[in-house]
Design a protein that fits this description.
eight-stranded antiparallel beta sheet; 8 strands; globular; oxidoreductase activity; F420H2_quin_Rdtase
């Protein structure tokens, strides 16, 4: 499955400087506390490889349980017109991804869900956390859903 969701033409602005500070604080908390809830959601630290720089890039993201012990994440950017930068990093290097929850680091493979599989995951996500449905209303791009599967299960 390919990473093929284009940017939209409308949506909220991309997160700014205050969000970057909050993300750094959140990542320290997730790593220190063995996982954490951020804004009421389970969160993990996602580390990708920069598509242009080749450097590791980390960000906190909300996650939802997936089959086989994996995680589902949504490239929502809170309803921004553009996909978050980490989405493009995943697209460039879907097999060079790490997830951290507390002191546990897991190498994963990222796959963007499509079709019925995406719809099933979307129902699960929006039932658990309705805020994602609100994000979808803010933008005209379809919010990508990514399944992260531990490499040992592939």
């Amino acid at each position: 499955m390919s990473f093929d969701t284009p940017s939209g033409t409308r949506g909220t602005r991309q997160p700014g400087r205050a969000v970057k500070w909050f993300n750094k604080w959140s990542m320290r908390r997730i790593r220190r506390k063995g996982g954490a809830k951020l804004m009421g959601m389970d969160a993990l630290v996602l580390t990708t490889v920069g598509r242009k720089s080749g450097e590791p890039r980390s960000t906190p993201v909300a996650w939802f349980p997936s089959e086989n012990g994996g995680w589902l994440i949504v490239a929502s950017a809170a309803g921004a017109a553009k996909n978050p930068a980490w989405y493009y990093n995943l697209a460039a290097h879907p097999d060079r991804v790490r997830v951290e929850i507390g002191s546990v680091t897991t190498n994963v493979v990222a796959v963007q869900l499509q079709g019925e599989e995406r719809e099933k995951a979307w129902r699960q996500i929006t039932t658990t956390m309705p805020r994602f449905a609100e994000y979808q209303v803010k933008t005209d791009r379809e919010l990508p859903i990514i399944r992260l599967t531990p490499r040992s299960l592939n």
